[in-house]
Protein: Notoamide biosynthesis cluster protein O
Organism: [Candida] railenensis
Amino acid sequence: MSSPSRLTRIYRATYFQAVLIGFLSFTQPGIWSAIAGLGAGGLQSVTTSNSASAILFAIMFFFSPVFGILINKWGIKPIINIGTVGYVFWSAGLYKNSKDGSQALITAGATLCGISAAAFWTGEATVAILYPEQNQRGLFIGTWQVLNKIGGLIAGAISLALNINDDESGGVSLNTYVVLLSIQCLGFPASFLLSPPEKVIRSDGTKLISNVRHKTLKEEARTFLKVLKRKEVLGLAPLFISVVWFNSWQSNYITNHFSVRARSLNSLLSALIGGATDIVAGQFLDTKYIRRSLKVKGSWVLAVALMTGFFIYSLVLQHEFDVNPEEGIDWKGNARFARAFIPFQIFKISGEFIFNWTYWVIGAYQFSSEEIPHVSGIIRSLESLGQCLAFVITVVNTNDMTSLIASVVIFFLSVIPASYIVSQVTDEEITGREEYANEESDLEAPAENIDVVITAKED
């Protein structure tokens, strides 16, 4: 059988899949994050935004495991296609509310976005865990997240340009939503370019088997429960819940205390700082000069130390605002801006690093291609649960200190079981059967004859 063309090699290459899933992440959750980075979704009222976010993440909590099952029945690409449809309705709801105060589309948009986001989050996580070669996992995850942040970078720059003269508190310009909505519409057609796993051409010659299985729902449910009982999943589950919990406090903090253009700058800096962290984290986690066990343990200690610094400074800032409240802080003419805004940006490094770390670590464990969609569904469901509960707290109790303290407690409780899992890491090679494709004939071999099987192995 003839060797694939150069164009096919590029199009089917692992790194192209990383760039593509990163681009899709840019158009969907990237733009969503950029809008959220404006504080309260760009609205003046945090209650409206937090209520919509609570609905969105509650739906994602339920549907993410469902889409993990559907990925094994329909394939990854159809689920990603579904995942690029609903985000635009959430943004449209915020636009409508900001324009005339309408609440109907806010609720409908949050519902549709929740279903779509569950599909996309589960699909992109499956790609990030399943597709990359073992020695390039950090590069793949870093590329995926950097492109996600480029979405935020572009959106943040647009937002800052459109709101540059607004040094008061309140909602952002309506044109901000129009531009960002247009970018989100690019995701659906681009999603059809994604290659299924069995057609991906890896640089190390290994081939992936299709994750699609013609199993009954009962059989898929058994696989789901099997994955859910794995000690790696159970031990890291609290961390998946806590790693994004503090986002609700961050959103409220920016909205309640800073001007519109400062909030737009926050959105821009979130992309810049996050993207830089993704690059450095990816390079560090892929380095071959440090033993895997030492790399996992050392990076975990660093992640906890960074998060500890973030939480300590955040508690200090929040206490100061509780004692001496202030709204509409701007970079011009307010001495409080530097102390309240700049360190807040620097400490974004901690949250981004630990997010990358969780995906790198779970991807290093031994799950089969059939199990990985379930792993992704569980991870995304737990992340959604954390964000849902965090936003519910902010709606029920509007005291920002309460929200912050809750995120601190949840994170440090998660450190205990995660530390146990980290302590179990060894330097043993990840076991599995890999069949190397022949340069001339095997690259186009039928998928059913080629496989990468990664079996569960107790430490």
Summary: The beta strands are 433-434, 452-453. Residues 211 and 372 are 9 Å apart (CA to CA). DSSP finds 18 helices and two strands in the chain.
